[in-house]
Every structure is written in C-alpha cells, then in structure tokens.
Amino acid sequence: MAIEGIDLIKAASFLGAGLAMGLGAIGPGVGEGMVGAKACEAIGKNPGEAGLLTRTMLVGQAVSESTGIYSLVIALLLLFVV
Amino acid sequence: MLNDIESWVKVAAFAGAGLSMGLGAIGAAIGEGFAAAKANDAIARSPDSSGDIFKLMLVGQAVAETAAIFALVIGVILLFSNFSAAAPISVAALLGAGICMGFGAMGSGVGSGFPAGEACEGVSRQPAVKGNLTTNMLIGSAVSQTPAIFAMVVSFMLMFINYSGAPLHPTSAALLGAGFATGLAAIGSGLGSGLAAGASCQGSARQPLTSANVTIIMLVGQAVAQTPSIFGLLISFVLMFKSYAPSETLAASIALVSAGLCIGFGGIGPGVGNGMTAQSAVGWVARNVRQEAVLMRTMLVGQAVSQSTAIYAMVIALALIFLI
Q: Are A50 and B298 inside 8 Å of each other by CB?
C-alpha cells in the first residue's frame, strides 16, 4: 500500500470526520435524554402545565443539540471542504 | 514472517477471541452484581420472602448472563475453528467479529441487570404480585438482550461469509468497520432498554393495578431506545455487502473504518438518553396512570429529539461509505 502525503491527509480527515460526529453525538444524546426524563417527571407531578413543560423541554433540548450540530458541521467540513 | 498468511489469520482469531470474551464479560458482571445487591437489600427488608427473592435473582441473573454467553460462544468458535481456507481478508473479518461481540455484550449485560434487581426489590414490597413481576422482568430483559443478539449475528456473518473473492484493500477495512458499528452502537441501546425495564419492574411493584399500562409504555420506550443499535446494524450490513472497487490508497480504507466508528460511537449517547427518558416516563405512568397519554407523547417527542444525533452520525457514516 503506497502512502503519499495527500493520501495521508485525506485519510486523517476521514477519520477525523467519523470521530468528530461519533464522539460528538454521545453528549447531546445523553443530555437530551435527561431533559426528556425530567420533563416526563414534571408532567407526571403537574399535568396541568403539560404544554409549558413540553415547550421548555424542546427549547432545552434544542440548546443541547447545538453541540451535536457543531460536530455535524465539523464532520461535513472535514469530508467535503478540507 | 510477514507473508505467512495462515499465522496471521490465527493471530487475528486469537486476538478476536480475547477481545470478545474480555470486553463481553464486563457488562454481564456489572448487571448481575446490581441484581445481587438489590436482592440483598430486598431480603434484609423482608426476610420472609427470601426464597422467592433468591429464585427471582437467579432467573434475572441468568438472563443477564446471556450476553456474556454469546461472547463466550464467539470466543470459543474463534479459538477452535479451523479457518483453513485462510485468505488475507480473514484477518480483518475475524478481528472484527471479536470486537463486535465484545463491545456488543457490554450494554445488554448491564441493562438486563436493572430489571432483575428492581424485580427482587419489588417482591420484598409486594410479595403478592410476584408472578406479574417475573413476567415483566423477563419481557424487559429479553428486549434488552436484542442489541447483543444483533452483535452476535454480525459476528457470525463476519466469521463465516466467504470474502476471498473481494478486493483485499478497502474490504478489510469495511469488515473491521462493520464490527465496530454494531458492537459499539449496541452499548447504548442495551443500557437504555435496561433502564426502561428496571423502571417498569419498580412501577408495577409499587402500583400493581397499573401493571399493564406500565408494560406497554416500557415496550414503546425500549423500541425507540433500540433504534441506534438498528442504525449500527444497518451500517454493518451496508459495509459487509457493498462491493468495493480495489483501491490501494489509505484514505479509501480509513473512510470505511471511520464510518463504522462514527455510527458506533454516535449510537451510544442517544441509546442511553432514550432509555433515561423512557425510564422516567414509565415510572410516572405507574404513579399517575391518568396522564398516560400525555406522558407517552412527551416521552416520544423527547426521545425523537435525542435520536437526532444518532441520525446525524448515520448520515456522516453513509457519506463516508458512498460519497467518498
């Protein structure tokens, strides 16, 4: 297997893309799950506020999602731009 | 020495066997320890039911053991099979099989311990619903085993499909990637499904009348938590069955391994997160069964958002496989 400079750079960027998105998905996945868990708990305790609680849950999850989107952006940049 | 293919295939088979059993033992041991700890708690609380609790603990631990037994089976096959039609590509395939089963047994082993422990504690609270709890525990822990079964299926395919006609270079990497994809993605789903199953055993012991509702929401929650491992399985199948043009470049190989790592790691978080959401929803359906519909809806919305990162990981993995 002949390894040249440009080949090595491409290989590194592909590996980087996979690891960026793969490892980057762990945090938001767990974090958003915790938000969902607490929202279910709160609705169980106080069903009257279900609408407000669902809205708050979605906003919280959206913020937590941002790190996953950063990972996606970096992975796409590594794949198609670098 | 470097050209002695038969020895290298043996090296891969033995290393794979070690990884399979070594990694595969972690989860089941933790899960069974959790079950035993809860059983001790339960017996201390109500020594009169100690016989029932002891039996339930053993049944629950036997289910949790399944994942480790899968790893043992794969390990033994790797050790003692005579992979005589040894082609250079078997090196990657056998190593991938070991990695897949080793990681794949982790989550299911831990996850199946949760329903076993909670069921033991439940019997100490409500000895009268023992039968119901046992059924619930068995259903919940059987679903938690699914990711380990996916990993076993992929391991068997990697060991026994004949790849000798495929071009060595990108295909080796694809087979290694296939092992990583299903193996790693199974960790989160196994653990998450177990969390939901544990909550359902706890809930049906506290509120025996809600037992049917609790089991239903548990199964829905577990099914969603299972999704990341299905994504992993899908990517593994794509990696195993796509036909590759021969390529000697490093980049082509690394892209395929990276696709497996991407969906593998990417599935862990959403699997655990979905399980946490399901755990809480199941627990609260038991306590407040009148709100079952709104809890189910909130759980599914919350899980769907948490799932999105696994979908991003799948998109990147597919891009690595098909666009590069």
A: yes
Tokens for B65? 């053991």
If one counts every other C-beta atom within 10 angstroms of the C-beta of residue B160, the result is 12
Residue B17 C-alpha, separation from nearest chain A C-alpha, in angstroms = 26
Q: Which structural domain range is residue A12 located in?
A: 5-80
| CATH number, residue B313 | 1.20.120.610
The count of CB pairs under 8 A between chains A and B is 209
Range of the structural domain that residue B84 is part of: 5-322
How remote is the C-alpha of B258 from its chain's centroid?
Answer: 20
Q: What is the pTM of this model?
A: 0.94
Number of domains in chain B: 1
Query: Within the 148-177 window of chain B, which residues sit less than 8 Å (CB to CB) from chain A?
Result: 169
Contacts of B281 in chain A (CB under 8 A): 36-37, 40
pLDDT at B22: 96
Q: What is the pLDDT of residues B73-91, one digit of tens each?
A: 999 999 998 876 668 899 9
Question: Rounded to a whole number, what is the distance in angstroms from the first to the last CA of chain B?
Answer: 34
What pLDDT, in 10s, does the model give residues B52-61?
999 999 999 9
pLDDT in tens, B296-318: 999 999 999 999 999 999 999 99
Q: Which stretches of chain B drop beneath a pLDDT of 50?
A: none
Residue B294 CA to residue B287 CA, distance in Å, equals 14
Q: Indicate which CATH number applies to the domain containing A15.
A: 1.20.20.10
User: Six-digit token pair at B200?
Assistant: 């359902």
